[in-house]
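Lecture notes, continued. The same structure-token format from the folding unit now serves as the input rather than the output. Read the line below as a description of shape only.
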């Protein structure tokens, strides 16, 4: 099958012929309908994270189940699914506590090693002409997904069944952008009605933070970005105010709008400067929530005395603290009920072999989400 392979930051991301083995026990094979191009894929492409390479890229996607591995009873062939880049193991102490986004087995095996739960990969590059199959080059999964491909084999817990009437070439982005953004508001921060909220960065994840804050009943939602088109969009997603951070210091402008500071400041970018701004925007009892992911090793600073005296908190939010099998179908329902906007997040659709162009578009900053359609 065709899949998009990442080798190293110097080698262009390109489509290759890849072998996909049959699903083993507890796994399923899914035919991909659409795969979203996310900033995390860009971090990988630029070599900013220690990602297991070579790998098939992509961690956001949707599709249809085409084959069940031994023992899988939670899914059937033909089910429509959204892929979750945390396939909960269901057995570790975090999964048992209901904190599935923290799944220990995903954090220690699946994600860092680029394999499935049994420690092996279903992906490989074909052996060179005439070579023994044993000489085939191993290929890694990305976050247990690898959705930039015609098909994937994933743990059954990472293929989340959703309703059949939801368009697969839209709801693919529920698996990362929507779950991460809305989940950060509803799950990680548990924003209360009447709260004041600042959102730094209005890209694919940030706009979902904005609409999550609206769902939570926030009274003021201040959208902050350096690209005016993105804060325009944020107003459509429920923001009540906007700040153009390209002009003047965003914190200074925020404190002109809300002199007491905000109850919640979300950093949907994940740069040192934006994390520090989020902390400085807080009012008494406020919480800064780090949603956007920085490069490995990045450091930010804050004044502990201010934090302690003002009873403030800094929260990290991984994957919107979601419980995939509960939250993903519920988010798809909210989209179908008109409570969540997803269509405006999708700025274009491209074939699989234009993955490099889609990543370049994202890097240039103009687009929200491009979907790759195999
Ligand atoms: Zn993502
Ligand atoms: Zn677990």
């Amino acid at each position: 099958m065709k899949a998009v392979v990442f080798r190293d930051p110097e080698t262009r991301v390109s489509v290759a012929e890849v072998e996909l083995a049959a699903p083993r026990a507890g796994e399923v094979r899914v035919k991909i309908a659409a795969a979203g191009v996310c900033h995390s894929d860009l971090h990988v492409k630029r070599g900013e994270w220690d990602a297991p390479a070579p790998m098939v890229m992509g961690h956001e996607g949707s599709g249809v189940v085409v084959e069940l591995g031994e023992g899988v009873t939670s899914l059937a062939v033909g089910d429509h699914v959204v892929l979750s880049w945390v396939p909960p193991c269901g057995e570790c102490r975090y999964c048992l506590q209901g904190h599935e986004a923290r799944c220990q087995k995903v954090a220690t095996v699946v994600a860092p090693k680029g394999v499935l739960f049994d420690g092996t990969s279903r992906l490989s590059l074909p052996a060179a002409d005439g070579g023994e199959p044993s000489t085939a080059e191993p290929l890694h999964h990305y976050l247990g997904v690898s959705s930039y491909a015609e098909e994937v084999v994933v743990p059954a817990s990472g293929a989340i069944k959703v309703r059949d009437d939801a368009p697969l070439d839209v709801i693919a982005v529920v698996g990362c952008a929507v779950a991460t953004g809305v989940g950060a508001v509803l799950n990680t921060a548990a924003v209360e009605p009447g709260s004041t909220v600042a959102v730094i960065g209005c890209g694919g994840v940030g706009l979902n933070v904005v609409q999550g804050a609206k769902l939570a009943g926030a009274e003021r939602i201040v959208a902050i970005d350096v690209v005016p088109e993105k804060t325009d969009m944020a107003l459509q997603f429920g923001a009540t105010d906007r700040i153009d951070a390209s002009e003047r210091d965003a914190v200074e402008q925020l404190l002109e709008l809300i002199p007491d500071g905000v109850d919640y400041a979300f950093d949907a970018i994940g740069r040192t400067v934006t994390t520090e701004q989020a902390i400085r925007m807080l009012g008494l009892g406020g919480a800064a929530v780090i949603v956007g992911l920085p490069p490995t090793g990045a450091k930010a600073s804050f004044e502990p005395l201010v934090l302690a005296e003002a009873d403030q908190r800094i929260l990290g939010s991984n994957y919107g603290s979601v419980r995939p099998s509960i939250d993903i179908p519920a988010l798809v329902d909210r989209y179908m009920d008109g409570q969540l906007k997803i269509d405006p997040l999708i700025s274009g659709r491209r074939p699989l072999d234009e993955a490099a162009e889609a990543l370049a578009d994202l890097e240039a900053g103009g687009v929200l989400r491009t979907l790759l359609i195999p």
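Point for the exam: The chain has a mean pLDDT of 95.
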